[in-house]
Amino acid sequence: MKTSRRAFLSASAALPLAAAQSATRRGVEFPTVSSFDPWVEVHAQHLRANVRSVAAATGRSIIAVIKNNAYGAGLVNVARILDPLEHIRGFAVVKLHEAHALRDGGVKKPILLMGPVDASQIVDLVRRDITLMVYTPMAREFERAERRTGSTASVHVCIDTGLGRVGVPYRDAPQFIADLRGARSVSIGGLMMTFTEDPDFDREQLRRFTDVCRTAQFDLSRCHAVSSYTLFQHPDIALGALRPGMVLYGIYPEPAFRQARKFDLKPAIALKCRVAYVKQLQAGDSAGYNRAYIAKAPVWIATLPVGHADGLPRVAAKGARVRIGGALYPIVASVSASHAIVEIGAERRVEIGDEATLFDWTDGSRPEDLAEACGASVYDLTMHLNPLLPRRVIGE
Ligand SMILES: *Cc1c(COP(=O)(O)O)cnc(C)c1O
């Protein structure tokens, strides 16, 4: 793609995080938000139905992964919806601020922080009963935290069986666990690992993991590893709890898994806005930066006030479809920071103010459909939704 000055000008600056948190934490809209502006809709009943469906099919409880603003759905909103469900054993996040935001938001169930922590944070985390994922020796920090708080730290040991990201190398893990057990001030609540999602290697990883659990005499019911992908790819792999993210939001993690319709997932996240402008182009008229679109004949187009700064991928202009009034129309021209252009056709079939759905739970408009049209992973779609967009919870 040509990088022009115009492309630079159309990119937006990063927005302040504090505002993003307050917007989602309170679960309210800014009073100044225009009703044309894009918003994210979160369907509470779909979230609950997905949890029940996965729990019923597997007979397992769930540590719900709600990292990265609950995959775009809004961290605290999602946690509050799921917290009361009996199948939810607890929550997992990766960022420190998200662990705190959950406790601030009144979440009662265990919270597992799967990201790195600095020694200076540990007292606070223990005081707030946040479970830490550990893979480096921290016995002294835990002793200090107990002296300060009177509480022992609860930890899950992360074991690296091949992903090579974080975690104690599996060969060293039995000794690491033994040392940690010998330390005061800490209690090991679980052992965990992450699959590489290479179907041929996953079973070797599982073997390495269960060997460690057995050597450490650690009950498998307290071990967890199964993500959304593993639920589909290796339905026989059974450990204590599941640790999925994407399926809970009702989204199939890979196109190949959609056909099976396993769990009958219902997407719980939608991206919508309202049509800002409708007009007719004559043959030869252009639309978009760099005149990316030239009308071949008279054609109606609609402008949507949503763009890549909101999380709509730029490549959506290569023909991803938007639903307006029950029909699907292609995005054309270019997606800029805050605008997208939709080709309506020879007839004027939409009006200013009509609701436009970039994705929701309707067949043909599911998040998987938009991601596929963009040649992107659905993870890149929902997790890149701007956290500042209002989140509207429906179906309570
Ligand atoms: C994101 C994540 C998960 C959940 O993955 P999904 O594919 O969304 O189910 C599980 N475990 C870890 C460590 C993760 O980072």
Termini separation comes to: 44 Å
Cα-atom radius of gyration? 23 Å
Q: How many strands, which pairing sense, and closed or not: the largest β-sheet?
A: 9 strands, mixed
Query: Which class of secondary structure composition applies to the elements?
Result: alpha/beta
Task: Tell me the quaternary state.
Answer: single chain
- Summarize model confidence as the mean pLDDT: 92
- Described by the principal axes of the CA atoms, the overall outline is elongated
With helices defined by DSSP (H or I, 4 residues minimum), what is the helix count? 13
Q: Give the percentage of residues in beta strands.
A: 15-25%
Total E-strand runs: 20
Helix share, percent? 25-40%
How do the strands line up in the largest sheet? 12-15-18-17-16-19-11-1-20
Low-confidence stretches: 1-30
Cofactors and ligands: pyridoxal-5'-phosphate
